[in-house]
Amino acid sequence: MTTDIDVKVREVGLRDGLQSVQAFFPTPSKIAWIEAEAAAGVPEIEVCSFVPAKVIAQFTDAAEVVEASLQQTGLEVSALIPNKKGAERGFEVGVHKLNYVTSVSESHNMANVRRTVADSVAAFRDIAALRDQNPEWRNVKLAGGLSTAFGCTIEGPVDPVAVLKLAQAYVEAGADELSVADTVGYANPAQVKDMFVMLKRELGDVPLAGHFHDTRGLGLANVHAALEAGVREFDASLAGLGGCPFAPGATGNIVMDDLVFMLEAMGMKTGVDLDRLVAVRDIIARELPEEPLYGAIARAKPPKGFHPAGAGRQAAE
Ligand code: COA
Ligand code: ZN
């Protein structure tokens, strides 16, 4: 599924979206959402978070959701972890990739995971060692997340040098890839391009992903800037569901359906069938009737004569 794509889109709505929704999204509906998006061709889904139930009650069914996700042929199943305990839970249930989270800004890291950035890095090092010592866990990928990389609601501007320092620490500690996140939607395209150009120059071949929120309307413009810097992996959430309970005023991630439209319209294959993807929104609309759902393509439909980049491949399958 993932071999013939130009850009990898990764659904994060089941984690980044649902973590800020108070109502419990029923487990069978989470699984139906995952199945339907995998069937539409989405290659990777972050299906849950391994955090204490007292911190976020939405993820008490994490093990069950992962188990069902692992049944989806060709789907890369990932989950968020904030600490070693979360990693152990993820390793035990067989997640393919664990997305570890540290904020670049000290105060946001303290608010989110209750420790310093240095302590977060040290814990990541322990997690990588734990993986490497256990033959059955050795193939699990570890992604280092850099939250608030483009600005912080508590500290304001964030120094790109601090972003690079955390990125280098992650790589030294054994990260397989990095995810650079505009957690609070502060970034602009010039900043994004400069950041990724700098990180690629300094880090070499480490895979870099972009994680953008559309809080100030620049989400897809930021994706375009990152594309220009050579980034080929992006997080998004269906219907733009999302936010961060620890980032006041934050709204959802960039809209998955609009991201797929933009990429396909630009001639970049995602492997995703846009019509089938848009249809999955019904599951969210049914379970969360009060929640605002976003998306220009769902509202306006693709332009007349729109021809997805991957249309030939999908028709041939
Ligand atoms: N999963 C389940 N339980 C966990 C856990 C995890 N990942 N991490 C810690 N716990 C348990 C501990 O075992 C302990 O249990 P006990 O009281 O029965 O002994 C309890 O939680 C407290 O552990 P402690 O290490 O002191 O954690 P903490 O209270 O300092 O919280 C975090 C630290 C990292 C667990 C918490 O701040 C957190 O989950 N943050 C993530 C928030 C988030 O998801 N933000 C949005 C994503 S960016
Ligand atoms: Zn986010």
Describe what this molecule looks like in 3D:
There is one protein chain. This protein has 317 residues and is α/β, with parallel strands linked by helices. Helix content is 43%, strand content 14%. It has one domain: Aldolase class I (TIM Barrel, Alpha-Beta Barrel), CATH 3.20.20. Strands 1-2-3-4-5-6-7-8 form an 8-stranded parallel β-barrel, surrounded by 8 helices. It is globular. The structure holds coenzyme A and zinc ion (ZN). Coenzyme A binds next to helix 4 and helix 5.
Show the helix and strand layout.
Layout: E1 8-11, H1 13-17, H2 27-39, E2 44-49, H3 62-69, E3 76-81, H4 84-93, E4 97-103, H5 106-113, H6 117-133, E5 141-147, H7 160-173, E6 177-182, H8 189-203, E7 208-212, H9 219-228, E8 233-236, H10 256-265, H11 274-287, H12 296-300, H13 311-316
Parallel strand pairs: 1-2, 1-8, 2-3, 3-4, 4-5, 5-6, 6-7, 7-8
Helix pairs in contact: 2-3, 2-11, 4-6, 6-7, 7-8, 8-9
This protein binds coenzyme A and zinc ion (ZN).
